[in-house]
């Protein structure tokens, strides 16, 4: 009895079309709802906003919208706002070492264009009237209309991930987990963004819009912690006190003053008191920000 070969010869290797490449690569930049919100909030902070509103519909499955009162976008930058490899942050590779902002505005918006229906309403500080901008999935500007708005920018994402059917189905199925992760990420920005009022609301169906979290724009990180986790949490906090080693420690390790590095690092932040009933069994309230080094350990 002869055995028939059923395998087909491999097809010719061909280049993937540019549109599909952009979708696939963008899916590796914006992986989750949390990533999308993070990128938009960072853009608002980089734009000098003191008031940022995150509005969700159906926990972000239907709509994600981030609005701010930052500097806005100049008309000269409308065309390049969402194009790949377009940014105001660097001009060549060597500029990377000098970047002190959160990220590359154009790269994030380019990826979000490929994964959703993206619309921007912006009014630059030098403009008298705002502008509504609509982009296609390649980041090309397809519509520009006058639109009333005070200074700042609003970015709206409808149907996140719908251009990737398998990813979109998974996103819809796991929306509660995606939403919970997004809230945790947003909490970290609320805590560390002193002088910035951040509000997040969610609307389910045609129901009422509910406030999920908000800060008051205080200059104090401690106040921000209280706004997010409640005044009871503030009662358990102790600030970090960074001190140089004393004489006894110096003697124990045979060190001299000249052996100690000067300002090797600076760490500030808060930790919960080590008392019975104060701690937490989970690590969901531990936050670290690496600038100097900020640490928030609520446990």
TrEMBL record:
Gene3D superfamilies: 3.30.230.10, Histidine kinase-like ATPase, C-terminal domain (3.30.565.10)
Superkingdom classification of source: Eukaryota
Any one GO molecular-function label of the UniProt entry: ATP-dependent DNA damage sensor activity
Entry keywords, A to Z: DNA damage
GO process annotations (BP): mismatch repair
Gene Ontology cellular component list: MutLalpha complex
InterPro entries with a match to the protein in the record: DNA_mismatch_repair_CS (IPR014762), HATPase_C_sf (IPR036890), MutL/Mlh/PMS (IPR002099), MutL/Mlh/Pms-like (IPR038973), Ribsml_uS5_D2-typ_fold_subgr (IPR014721)
Name the UniProt record assigns to this protein: Uncharacterized protein
Organism listed in the record: Mugilogobius chulae
């Amino acid at each position: 009895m002869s055995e028939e070969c059923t395998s087909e010869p491999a097809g010719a290797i061909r280049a993937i079309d540019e549109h599909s490449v952009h979708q696939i690569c963008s899916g590796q930049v914006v992986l989750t709802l949390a990533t999308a919100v993070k990128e938009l909030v960072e853009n608002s902070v980089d734009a000098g906003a003191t008031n940022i509103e995150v509005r969700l519909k159906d926990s972000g499955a239907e709509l994600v919208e981030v609005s701010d009162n930052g500097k806005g976008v100049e008309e000269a930058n409308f065309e390049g706002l969402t194009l790949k490899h377009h940014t105001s942050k660097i001009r060549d590779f060597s500029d990377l070492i000098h970047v002190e902002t959160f990220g590359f505005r154009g790269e994030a918006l380019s990826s979000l264009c490929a994964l959703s229906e993206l619309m921007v309403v912006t009014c630059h500080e030098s403009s008298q009237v705002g502008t509504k901008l609509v982009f296609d999935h390649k980041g090309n500007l397809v519509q520009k209309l006058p639109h009333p708005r005070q200074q700042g920018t609003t970015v709206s994402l409808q149907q996140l991930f719908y251009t990737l059917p398998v990813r979109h189905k998974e996103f819809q199925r796991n929306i509660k987990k995606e939403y919970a992760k997004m809230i945790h990420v947003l909490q970290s920005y609320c805590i560390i963004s002193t002088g910035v009022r951040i509000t997040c609301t969610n609307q389910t169906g045609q129901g009422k819009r509910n406030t999920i979290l908000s800060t008051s724009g205080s200059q104090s990180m401690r106040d921000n912690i209280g706004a997010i986790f409640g005044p009871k949490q503030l009662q358990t906090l102790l600030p970090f006190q960074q001190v140089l080693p004393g004489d006894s420690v110096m003697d124990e390790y045979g060190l001299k003053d000249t052996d100690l590095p000067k300002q090797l690092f600076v760490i500030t932040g808060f930790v919960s008191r080590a008392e019975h009933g104060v701690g937490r069994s989970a690590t969901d309230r531990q936050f670290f920000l690496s600038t100097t080094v900020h640490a928030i350990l609520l446990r």
